[in-house]
Design goal:
Elements: H1 2-18, H2 25-34, H3 36-45, H4 47-82, E1 96-97, E2 103-109, H5 114-130, E3 134-140, H6 148-161, H7 163-175, H8 178-194, H9 199-205, H10 209-224, E4 232-235, E5 238-241, H11 246-258
Helix pairs in contact: 1-2, 2-3, 6-7, 6-8, 6-10, 7-8
């Protein structure tokens, strides 16, 4: 049905342009609906030409959509420089890097997201580049797979025990991401044991309301900032939607410094 509507609309556009002085758009539309054989015969008579026309039209539509997306992102970026996002930094937040650093990088992520595993490398590069000038906060947006939220629960339960063990758990999952899908919760428990988490305490905390609410808070904040997929980042209030290279984040930092909104 969608394809037929596309064909009808495209054919109507052609007929309108070719018969601009001989009939109205509604009249031509009615004619095609009442006499579909006209369209069928035209396609049968010129299948290659019509297919090429459809490909050209589809490519043109994709290019226009891409241009519009770039313009929309530029507009949003400019708005955020003026009115930056303000992620909540909770009293017990787990920081990687200097907790008092001038650069704050917050990620909304999913342990089962392929692009998040790529973004993990970017985060490590940024931590290495800026050293004591950056702090990183990992937040949750479990949207991908069956065990996404469960992995988030395990991370948070381990964080309650020891931040260093939670970081080790985080890194191990992203290094062996495919094992989450194949091994499920059994694999999550294995990694928890490997980082020497207290398994008795973990079993009590992992399903707790406290942890569930924390993950819910992260999800709500991510959606408030317009993130529907992962990864999503906020660096000193500026959103980054997707797994962009390190240079993209460096460019934002440079722009913030240039505008006097960040001192390094």
């Amino acid at each position: 049905m969608k394809l037929m509507s596309l064909i009808l609309g495209f054919s109507l556009a052609i007929l309108v342009s070719c018969n601009s002085g001989t009939g109205s758009k509604e009249g031509l539309k009615k004619m095609l609906k009442e006499n579909p054989d006209i369209l069928v015969d035209a396609i049968k008579a010129n299948p290659a030409k019509i297919l090429d026309a459809f490909k050209e039209a589809a490519q043109s539509a994709q290019e226009e959509a891409a241009k519009q997306r770039v313009e929309d992102e530029k507009k949003e970026l400019e708005e955020r420089y003026a009115t930056p996002h303000e992620p909540e930094i909770r009293g017990d937040e787990l920081f990687r890097g200097n907790k008092d650093a001038p650069i704050t990088l917050v990620e909304y992520s999913d342990f089962q997201c392929y692009y998040c595993s790529k973004a993990f490398g970017t985060v490590l590069e940024l931590l290495d580049k800026y050293g004591k000038k950056i702090r990183f906060v990992y937040k949750h947006l479990p949207v991908i797979g069956q065990y996404s939220r469960k992995a988030s629960q395990y991370y948070e339960a381990i964080r309650l025990q020891d931040p260093k063990k939670a970081i080790a758990f985080h890194d191990e999952l992203f290094k062996n991401q495919q094992k989450i899908r194949s091994g499920g919760e059994k694999y999550l428990k294995e990694v928890a044991k490997d980082v020497k988490a207290n398994m008795n305490q973990l079993s009590k905390d992992v399903e707790s309301e406290k942890i569930s609410k924390r993950i819910d808070q992260d999800e709500a904040e991510a959606r408030k900032f317009g993130f529907s997929g992962t990864p999503g980042f906020v660096i000193n209030g500026i959103p980054v939607k997707g797994a962009y290279p390190t240079s993209h984040f460096e460019g934002i930092v440079e722009e913030l410094v240039k505008r006097g909104k960040l001192k390094l």
